[in-house]
Design a protein that fits this description.
558 residues; 47 strands
Length: 558
């Protein structure tokens, strides 16, 4: 065990939660409710471990949210209290009874609990209004073009309510006889999928939607706000299931039903295209604006990339069957990693067994295939070697250029936690939940702990050891330990599987999805794109551009 902590800080009692916020450089530690001093929140400098303050609470820390505009930290405890905290001074500003922080906008924070929604002034904690909703808050709350949208229902979203954020008055209430299975509040409109899966609707709002740059992209002023602008009938009779995907940035709507994929016009709900070449998609996923899918036939499985404008195949590659996909835009034009499993959806055995593939994202050509014993559960394609994790016990370091195994490590149900250029963090999912830090180059275990209280972020691992908090470097140059002047440089960031991150994420965890679910994606960002991911054009000669001069592909990032 060669990894030493960057710093160690003793606190008064045993911690039961650790959370990290990069912008204020803050580590928030919730302490044991059974301790002699009762539950508290300890605030530490994430860079040095020095104490910033201690706040007594009435319950155990559940979650925290940081508002960069006001510089305020909100801490929520398990007894439904919200504490507004000054993260620099480590002091409590005010507190209120509420179960969650809904959203923050225009100097106000919106809190909710059961059927009640409140607006508080962030600066002094004065309550501006309180309103009672038609039902309990059951889904996301978001502010869209001057309207506060709330999903409410008994156990799931059954209606969408629009509230005036200035007064708390209800503006409109959208309700259906059947509950809403899923709702999307995007800059380009409000969409809802009815739980029976037979209908997708777009709900009219009374304000103008804006694009990524706060420029109006389409007028949505409608005197019938809260009514349906259009309705699209979904086919629920297919064993392959029905899934709906709404791309927040562009507003594009995609539907996979009866094995086909279709694109809908977000303004009218009319079908722009239906995949003309395939009618047996097993699943369909989106990475940025790139469309990927798996077509499974009786003879083989094909991994395809679709043109978002026409639905036609840009390329197709025969593989065994797929479950895990990760997209890495690299300097060589783009690498795509695909992991497969040992059985088809119908339970039949894949003849050649599971494997991890590296493909050229532009051409679809397979660069290499790495054989595994069990289903590929996750792939960390953000560095070299590429890390391939199997379903239960095996982790492999695979050379990014050749596909040859550089090392292998085993443990009980190892689950991906974080990765950087220097190290990989994994944790057991079985009876032994030990956390391990591996050297990315050779797989050596540099650190291990049985603590279940830890957090990764800023290129570091923060873990408890008794009453001590220890900070370990995961990246070669952890951003969290750098001076403020150095943090905007080339420091490598840890890419966590959940929680806050200021860097890019290139690992996409496979879910135990049934045939009705699509594999989830997390948007990734790149600081520079040297080759067009669409046509492969070398962009070095064109300087800083946000579109490809050859094919016109959009190269801008969120």
């Amino acid at each position: 065990m060669s990894l030493k902590p960057e710093w160690t800080e003793e606190i008064d009692t045993v911690p039961d939660a650790i959370q990290y916020h990069p912008s204020p450089g803050l580590l928030v530690v919730g302490t044991d409710t059974e301790g002699s001093s009762g539950p508290r929140i300890e605030l530490l400098s994430a860079a040095e471990g020095t104490a910033r303050g201690s706040i007594e609470t009435t319950g155990a820390l559940r979650e925290t949210e940081y508002d960069p505009t006001s510089g305020t930290l909100f801490a929520i405890t398990d007894d439904d209290h919200v504490y507004a905290i000054d993260p620099e001074r480590g002091s409590r500003l005010w507190d209120a009874w509420a179960a969650s922080v809904a959203t923050v906008a225009d100097g106000r924070v919106f809190l909710s609990a059961d059927r009640t929604l409140w607006a508080y002034d962030i600066s002094d904690g004065s309550r501006k209004w309180q309103t009672t909703l038609p039902d309990s808050v059951a889904g996301q709350i978001a502010q869209l073009a001057g309207t506060l949208l709330v999903g409410v229902g008994d156990s799931s979203i059954e209606r969408v309510v629009a509230v005036d954020p200035a007064t708390g008055e209800e503006q409109w209430d959208y309700e259906r006889e059947r509950s809403i299975r899923e709702a999307w509040f995007t800059d380009h409109g409000v969409y809802a999928q009815i739980s029976a899966r037979d209908e997708l609707v777009r709900i009219a709002t009374d304000a103008e939607a804006t694009g990524a740059d706060d420029q109006a992209v389409s007028p949505l002023f409608d005197p019938d706000a809260g009514t349906e602008q259009w309705s699209y009938s979904l086919n629920d009779g297919s064993v392959l299931g029905t899934t709906v995907s709404v791309v927040p940035r562009s507003g594009r709507v995609y539907v996979k039903e009866s094995g086909t994929v279709s694109a809908l016009d977000p303004e009218s709900g009319s079908k722009i295209w239906q995949s003309p070449e395939y009618d047996s998609f097993e699943f369909f996923s989106i990475a940025g604006e790139a469309l990927y899918g798996v077509v499974e036939t009786a003879d083989d499985s094909r991994f395809v990339r679709l043109d978002p404008d026409s639905g036609r195949a840009m390329w197709e590659t025969e593989i065994r069957t797929t479950t895990t996909v990760t997209d890495r835009l690299a300097g060589d034009g783009g690498r795509l990693y695909v992991g497969t499993r040992e059985t088809h959806r119908d339970g039949s055995i894949v003849e050649d067994g599971p494997a991890a593939y590296q493909l050229n994202a532009v051409t679809g050509r397979i660069d290499w295939t790495f054989e595994t014993d069990e289903r590929v559960a996750w792939i960390a394609g953000d560095g070299d070697p590429v890390i391939v994790g199997e379903e239960t016990s095996q982790i492999h370091g695979v050379d990014a250029d050749s596909g040859r195994q550089q090392w292998s490590s085993s443990g009980e149900y190892l689950h991906f936690e974080a990765a950087s250029d220097r190290r990989v963090v994994v944790v057991g999912k079985g009876d032994e939940k030990d956390l391990h830090v591996l050297d990315r180059a050779d797989g050596t275990v540099e650190f291990a702990t049985t603590s279940e209280v830890y957090h990764t972020g800023g290129g570091a691992l923060f873990a408890s050891s008794g009453t001590a908090i220890e900070a370990y470097p995961i990246a070669s140059q952890p951003a969290v330990f750098a001076s403020p002047d150095d943090r905007s440089g080339t420091n490598t960031e840890v890419y966590p599987s959940s929680g806050e991150s200021s860097g890019e994420t290139d690992v996409y965890e496979a879910r135990e999805a049934d045939a009705e679910e699509a594999v989830g994606w997390t948007d990734s960002e790149t600081t520079a794109v040297s080759y067009c991911p669409n046509c492969g054009t070398d962009l070095a000669a064109f300087g800083d551009v946000n579109f490809c001069p050859e094919c016109g592909a959009d190269l801008s990032t969120e």
